[in-house]
Design brief:
It contains 6 helices and 7 strands; from the N terminus they run E-H-E-E-E-H-E-E-H-E-H-H-H. It has 195 residues and is α/β, with parallel strands linked by helices. A 7-stranded mixed β-sheet has the order 2-3-4-1-5-7-6, sandwiched between helices. A hairpin with a 2-residue loop joins strand 3 and strand 4.
């Protein structure tokens, strides 16, 4: 498994989107930066907030695009291109409707699953889908017509606690993935449930 060099957290910019389900990926990267003692800083050339951290001996770039979700690829391609990072060296953290709050999954490759951030990133990386994903569960509202309102609203207090616990567990599990032990990382994270 190639070394992961870049971790991207997807979300929408602005105070009105802060704390919404759709920003779970951005919340993960923000917490990771805090845990490493290197807060995110605005970087206009990368269309986002960026940081550089060392975790478990690995040199990592962190990025939270400040474009809207459906333009996430612009920021990812800008940083990946500048630092010559391949898609296989990227981990994208994003919210996932098909997983309940309090659970998360690592995955490599696959389609965008209807997620507008991933939908924009794939062509921006030359239609290469081999990047890694951290899928943070936010649950499904039950009907397609309610999805937009669901992802753009804040979770209940109980759901928020589940999502936060899951983010903490994903951060704790991340060194296993960085060390190249994807199976062990998946086994640990996929067996965790805060629900």
């Amino acid at each position: 498994m190639p070394d992961i060099k870049l971790i991207v957290g997807l979300g929408n910019p602005g105070s009105e989107y802060r704390g919404t389900r759709h920003n779970a990926g951005a919340d993960f990267v923000e917490e990771l930066a805090k845990a490493c003692g290197m807060p995110m800083q605005a970087e206009s050339r990368f269309f986002g907030l960026a940081s550089r951290v060392t975790l478990s001996g690995h040199d990592l770039r962190l990025l939270i695009p400040t474009t809207f979700m459906n333009l996430s690829g612009k920021a990812v391609a800008a940083m990946a291109g500048f630092f010559k990072i391949t898609p296989e060296q990227i981990l994208i953290a994003h919210d996932e409707l098909d997983i309940p709050p309090g659970s998360a999954r690592f995955k490599q490759g696959g389609g965008h699953g209807g997620h507008n951030g991933l939908r924009d990133i794939v062509p921006a990386l030359g239609n290469n889908k081999d990047f890694h994903r951290l899928r943070i569960g936010i649950g499904h509202p039950g009907h397609a017509s309610r999805v937009t309102a669901h992802v753009l609203s804040a979770p209940s207090q109980a759901e928020r606690e589940c999502i936060n616990a899951c983010i903490d567990e994903a951060i704790a599990t991340l060194p296993l993935l960085l060390d190249g032990d994807g199976t062990k990382a998946m086994t640990r994270l996929h067996s965790f449930s805060a629900a």
